[in-house]
Fold this sequence. Notes:
The structure is a single chain. By secondary structure, the chain is mainly beta. The chain has four domains: 267 residues, Beta Barrel (Porin), CATH 2.40.160; 262 residues, Porin (Beta Barrel); 268 residues, no CATH class; 262 residues, Porin (Beta Barrel). The protein is built from one helix and 68 strands. The strands form seven sheets. Strands 1, 2, 3, 4, 5, 6, 7, 8, 9 and 10 form a ten-stranded antiparallel beta sheet that branches. An eight-stranded antiparallel β-barrel has the order 11-12-13-14-15-16-17-18. Strand 15 and strand 16 form a beta hairpin. It is globular and about 105 Å long. 50% of the residues are buried. About 3% of the residues have low confidence. This is Transferrin-binding protein B C-lobe/N-lobe beta barrel domain-containing protein.
Amino acid sequence: MSDTFPAEASRVTATYSAGGIVAANRPTAPVPLSVQYDASARSYAILSGQDTLATLQTQGSGAIDGNPIFDVFRAIGGLVTSTLSLTRTGETSRYGTRFVAGGTLQNSEPFAGSTLNQLTSFVFGLRTAEAEVPRTGSASFGVGLLGALTGLNDFQPITGSGLLTLDFSTGRTTGNGVASTRFATFSGFSSPSYFRWSTNGNFSVASNRLQGDIQLELNPGSPLPGTIEGRLFGPSGSELGASFSAGFGQQMAAGTLTGTRGTAAPAFETLATLLSNTSLQQLETEVLYDASATAGRFTATGVRPISQSEIRIRTLGPDAQAIEMFANPLTPATRVDALSDPLFVAYRNTGTTFPTVRTTRLYRYMTPNPELALTYSTFAMTEMDLGNQFIDYTTVFGLATGFVNAPRSGSGVYQGVLHGTAVGAGPDGDRFSLQGSARLEFDWQAQTIGGRLSPVATNLRTRTATPLGDFTLRGSTPFLSASFDAVISGQPGAAGRLKGAFYGPNAEEATGAFSLFTPGAGTVLAAQGAVATRLISTGPSSGQPVGTPPPRVPLTEPWPTPLNPGLDNLTASETFLADARRASLFYPFSGTSALTSEEGQLTVSFDAATGSYTVSSPGSPALPAASETFAPATRDIAASNSGTTIFRTANGSTRNELRLSVAGAQGLIGTRHVGGGIWRQIDTQGGIERNTLHGFTFGYRTPNVDIPRATAADFAIAIEALQPMQDGLRLLNGTGMLRIDWASGQMVGVGTSIVRGELDNGAPRATLAGFTLEGRTTSINLFQTSLSIRNVSSAFGQGYFYGPGGSELGSALTFGTGGAPGTVFSGYLIGARGTSAPPPETLARLRDAASLDSQSAGIDYVRGTGSPTTVGQASTVLDSGRVRLFPGTGITQFSQRDLPAAAATEVGPSSRVAAESDARFTTYRVTGGNGVTTWRVYNSGAGNDQLALSYASFAQMEFAGTNGAAADRSIMFGLGTPLDRIPRTGSATYNGVVHGTAAGLGAAGQDRFLLAGTGRLEVDWASFGFGATLNLSATNLRTNTNVTMDPLIVNNGSISGGSLSGMFGGIYSGDFRGAFFGPDANEAAAHMRFTSTPAGTLPGLAGQAAFVGRRQ
Length: 1112
C-alpha cells in the first residue's frame, strides 16, 4: 500500500576532489524530511519540504546490492547520483523491526572540478501514538546502527549494534554499543575497523520524542561528538528509531539507530556473515622441508619468521564465500569433500605455471564446529608440494578488534585449541601433525600475556601419538594495539614464538600463529601452526607493570668494550651489533605480491682506514644474507641534510641506499653513543623490483647497573622511517620530547613529523602529522615502545639505552601491520637527554624537497597603452594548486591552474633580482617571448624583520604579457596543521600582515594599486567560527599617492577542519579563505579577492591579497 511517512533526519555534506576530501560542513539536525512509498511503482521518494531529493526504484536496475542488514538502491538524475541504503524489516531481518526502518541517502554531484556529497540519515515508520507511550517503568531496546562516515575519497559505510535503555518515569535515556566502518583498499575490497559509540539523552515525559547527544569513539580519547533525535514506533512503543549526526573538522558522520525491545544487542557482522567483499590482515608461519632419499621421510630445512600480509574474502551469497589466498583460492570449485571432516573443510589447487599442489584445510566457521565454535576468527593449514620440496604453512585471519576497541584494563582468560604440523630432525625425519589445548591469560592493564600450550604430536607414518608436555607463554600486549606477542618455553632446548591478535568487536577471541623448535617424540621437532581461543572469563588486573622482556630475544650483556670515544669521533675500526626491523615489497605491486614485516639483526662495521661503513644481514628463510660497503665516495651530498647522511651504490641489477643519522653537535639532537639508520636494498629482475628496508639502531649500550631506577628524565627524540608504497616510497621525519619516569617505568612522548609521499614533478607531497609515544622500561637495559602517527600508522618496537647513565636511547621500529602497500614503515627512533625538542622542519629549514598545497587569489586585467600602471577591464579569480620547494637547489615551482599560460612558473638563483630583494621579500624575474613574470616570495624565518614565520608563507606574481594581457596573483602555502592538532576549545588571536594589489573597475584608463597593511584574525575554536579585520592602504602606482582604505571585515566566518571561509561586508564583496599552519595551529594564512564601491578618492576596486599571521 502506498503511504507517506514523516521522518527524523540528520545531514552532513562533504566536498571531494581527485586528491581527497576538500571540505566538510558541520552536521545539521533535525532536517525536515518525509519518505513516500509508491506501491504500484515499487519506489521510494525522499522529500525535503517541497523538494524531491531522490526517487529510487526497489527492483530492476535500481536495486544494486544488499546484505542481511540493509538493501542498496541507486538512481541517476541529471548530474546527481543518488544511493539509498535501507534497513531490512521483518522478523527474519537482522535488526528485527516491523514498524520502523532506517536509511541513508547519499546524493553526489560534480561541482567545479570536485564532487559535492550530501548524506542524509533518517528513520520512518508507524509512530507510537502519544496516548500509547508508556509513562512508568523502563525498557531496553536492542538497536542496530546504519550510517556513513567521511573517508579519504568518499563516504564510508558504518554498521553496528548496541543496547539503549529508556526510563519512562524520568525520561532518562542511555545507550552504548559497537560499530564498524569499512576502508577501501588497493585491491578494491574493504577493510573493517571497529569502534564504540555511546549516547545520553532525554525522552519527553509528555510526548513521543527523544533528544540527546551521541559520541563515536573513532580514536581513543577523542570521540566524535554529535546529536540524536528519535521516537518510539509500533504498538505501545515496542520499537525505537533515531537519526544522528556527529562531526569535528573534516570528519563527519550521520546514521540511524533502529531496534526492538530486548535485553541484548543484535549481532551485525561475523566472519561467516560478512556484509561485503572484505580485505583482512593475516598472520602466517611456515616450516620448510625436503623429500628424503628414504621414501616417506623428510629433511627439515627451516622455519620462517611469522609474517603479515593481506587476505581477501569474497561474499558469494548468504552461505558461501571465496577466500583469495596468494595463488591458492579457496572456493566451492576447489573444495574436496572427500578430504574434509567435521573440523576442517579441505581444498586443493594445482599450479599451472609451476608443478605445485596446495592442499588446504580450513577450520570450519561457516557451519558449527564441534571442537571450538569461532565467530570472528579462524585459520587455514596448507601443505604445498613442489615435487621434492615441501612447505607447510598456517594462515590466521579474522575480524580484528583493532586498537580502538582493544581492552585497556582488567584481565581475561581465553581457552581453545592448537593445530599444526612438525618435521623431525635429521636427513630421514618423520612428519607429524599437532593437536592440543591452549590457554591464554592476559593482564591488559599490565600489558602482559601468560598461559600454556599442551600439544600432542602424531607421527603421520607410524600413527603414534606422543604428548609433548606443557609449554609456557610469557610476553606482552603492546599499548595502543590489539595484538599480542609471546615467547614459548618448555623443556630444555625448546624455544618458540606466538604472535596473534584479538578478534571481534569486544576482543571475544584471541587467535595467533606459532613457530616452535622442541625436543619430543624421539627427535627434535621444527613446528608451526595456529592457536585459536575464546574468552571464558574476566577479572581484575594485577596492576603490575611489565617487568619481563618482550618476546623477541634481546641483545644481552656483556656489551662489547667501546673502541672509540663516540660515533662522532670514529678513529678506530669497530663493529656494532645492531637491532633491526625490516619490511619488503615487490614492485610493480600486482595486488597479490607479499608485503612482509619482521624483525632481525644487523652488523654495522666501520673501517677507519677507508672511512667506509659495511652493513651486513645474516639473512632468514624469507630473505637471503646480504652485505654492502658504503665508501665516502658513495655519499650523495646533494640528498644528505642536517639530520641524515645518505650513501648510494649500484652493481648491475642491485642498488643499495644507506641513511645514517648524523652524530654529535652537527646532528639534530647531538647523540654521540647511539646512531640510527635505514638500509634499503633494491634488486631488479625481469621487470620486478624487490625493495627490502632495514631500520636499525647501533652504538654503545649502557650496562644494566648504570640504568637509573629513580626520578625522571626528559629526552629530545628524532624519528625517521621509509614506507613502501604502490608507486614508490614515503619518507617520515619527526622530532619531539619523551619523558621517562624511571621509578614506574612509564614512557610518554609527543612530537610532530613530516610525511613525504607521492612524487609531484620531482618533489614529494608533504604534510604534517602529529605523533604520540607510549612505552615501558624493564628490569634490564630494554624498553618497549608503541608510537602512533596520526592518519599514517602505528609503530611497535623495543629499544635500548646508550651512553653513560642511560643518557641516550634508540629503538628500531616497524610501523603498521603489513598487507597492502602503504601499511608498513621501517625505521628508527633515537634520543638524547635534553629539555627541549630538536628544531622541527620549517619552510626555512626543510631537510628535503616538498610539494605543498596552495591556494591563490588574483585579478586579471588589460594594461593601458599610455602607462604601464593604467589598466582596464579588471576581474577577480580564485584557485588552488601546489608549490614545490627544492631546498638543495633553491628552486621554487608554482603550479596553479589559473596562471596565464605564458607566465613563468619556476624561479631560482638564476632569476633572482638582488636589487629588488630585501629581508621581507625575495624578488625573481623571468622574461620570455610572450611576457615578463615577476615573483615576490615572502621570506620565512627569523631574518624577516616584518613578521618571522616558520610554517606559512605566500608569493605574489605580476605578469605582463606582450599583448597587453596582465595578471596579479597572491598564493599562500605552507605546512598545514594536522586535523587532530586543531584546538577544540578556547579562542586565539592571530596578528599579521597583508600584501596585495588592486585595479580600478571600469573601462580602460583605471589605475593600479599596491595594497599593504595589517590584519587581525580572531578565532573561537569551540564554535568553529572566526572574524577578521584588515587595515590596508592603497598606493597608486601612477601618482605614487597613498590612501587609507576602509577596513575589510569578515564577520561570522566558519572553520571546517583546518580551513577558514568567510565573506567581506560593507562596501566590499568577496571571499576570504585560509588555513592553519604548523604543528599546533601556530600560524594562519589566507588569500582573498574582493570588489568595492567607490569610497573617498578611491574608485571602485577589484583586489586580491594574502594575509599571514602568528598566534599570539
